[in-house]
UniProtKB/TrEMBL annotation:
It comes from the Bacteria. It comes from Microbacterium flavum. This is TrkH family potassium uptake protein. PANTHER family: KTR SYSTEM POTASSIUM UPTAKE PROTEIN B (PTHR32024:SF1), TRK SYSTEM POTASSIUM UPTAKE PROTEIN TRKG-RELATED (PTHR32024). Coiled coil: none annotated.
Amino acid sequence: MTDDSVGVRFGRRLASFATATVRGVRDLATASPSRFAVLVFSTLILLFTGLFSLPAASASGIQTPFADALFTAVSTICVTGLSTVDMAGHWSPFGHVLVYIGVNVGALGVLTLASILGLVISKRLGLRAKLIAAGDTNPLRAHGGPVNEGQTVRLGEVGQLLATVALSTLVIEAVLAVLIYPSLLINGVDPLTALWEAPFYAAMSFTNTGFTPNAGGLEPFATDYFFLTVLMAGVFLGSIGFPVIFTLWRHHFHLRRWSLHAKLTIITTVVLFFVGAGVFLLLEYANPKTFGGLDAWDTTFHAFFLSAMTRSGGFSTIDIGELNGSSLVVGSMLMFVGGGSASTAGGIKVTTLAILALAVWSEAKGRPSVEAFGRRIPSDVQRVALSVVAWGATIVALSTITIAQITNDPIENVLFDVISGFATVGLSTGLTATLPDPAVYVLALTMFMGRVGTVTLAAAVAATSRSQHYSLPVERPIVG
């Protein structure tokens, strides 16, 4: 047998294996979008764990311990911002490039990323692939029911939505980088270094990650209000979600043409932003370790900055560990809510909170249905909202109990960092950097579940909903 024939056979087998692999991935993406999304994120995390473990990724040239490499990979892909190492000093330029690439890939979202990969594999968006992408906007679009078609992105618009995701990410980060660059120069950053740090800060703000490329974090910029305002703007744009950006791009300020999702997201986000700032201002104005030594203007501005960052931004101009216990509780509540659906933010999402609040209000008023802005919110949406909250609370409770048992650290610090991880915020009381390896793995799993779990849970609930052509007898248990 000649070498040529052996090479031909090997080539055919390799081509056959590649074809079977692509077909298998495509079938999985079609049959189970949720599992495919989890597979995509898990694969990315394993890939980046290996890359972060390379000696070339660390500034010292020494291999990073597995626990730290894994945690950094999860925090990067899940756009969390928590870290067990000094992000500015531990990683080499190659390591920082990995972080930059990882957060932008992770920011695309679980199901949106899965949809794009499905598009690449199949060369087109089929009906089920469109349902996957539409599910990232509203998981309930994956089945029939009383969902008003005008209140969400239609299947025919999914291609436009995916284009909007990619284009808005590039354009917004580019604009943020241009605005940030002069501030870096004014604050003494070398012009060449600023060319790297400007897009890095832009990516970290829009993706709501919160990593900083320089030693000392935001401390050198604590009085540069223009710089901090640009960061807040980036966090806000990233947290409202791509469907809202898509709606604003199509309808601008024609409020009547906005979807119900866009209205609820923006209104709830703005309300929480001002309420959070007011509460932090009230609780911390006399704390000498945080806002107590600042004048009225500085205190007010930093209260708003802290309110914005606890929603998922992750940047901080103060030592979070020095906040009063009451402020840590308020921060935990804001982090648990998070940002908008299909956004770079985490948490249970502001639309979930809005729907539950509307349901409570309707029940108090004795109304037979939940309504907002002339639209009725169907019961299946309310069930998904309840499921997401129950899922999130369960994850946070189990993780907090486990880590508290492992570390014996104060429960308020453990709870804050756990919620920060679950909601992919990135703020820390200082606890995360001191965790032993077993607790590091628990918190990494919490971040993964927080980023992937709630979305895939909602998609799974929606996909498994089916019509029932009969009804059982009614019996009312005692509630309350």
